[in-house]
Amino acid sequence: MTQVAFHFNAPDKMVYTCRLLRKASATGATVVVTGEQEELDRLDVALWTFSALEFVPHCHGDAPAAMVAASPVILAGAGHRLPPASVLVRLGGALPADIEGYDRIIEVVGQGEQDRLDARLRWKNYLAQGLTPAGHDVAQRGGVHG
Question: Could you tell me the pTM of the whole model?
């Protein structure tokens, strides 16, 4: 069964997501990131710039098939076919139809009121699908380390 976790209260959603993706790719996991295109574009830039000494390999979901297959992190906006992966990281937006193919789903929620309201609706959506999300307060735990 798919595990769903909400990482909420992220002070800087992009930096937190970069650290999360760095950690996941270091373990060998393949990760698909979904969200609004504007947010994915900001994440793309952040992945290139958040650490001067590291690079998190990634590509967009509409890249050539060979590149998508070789990338540990795929940024997939609306309309992109979601490639197989072990982890789905969500920055918001509509929930993809086929979530059963993922071992884990991580919802990253910032501190803005609209982000929180949207996350509450997604939480209820998961409950309606028979999934019980877990909540992790990023600000309380100090975020993803490193």
Answer: 0.91
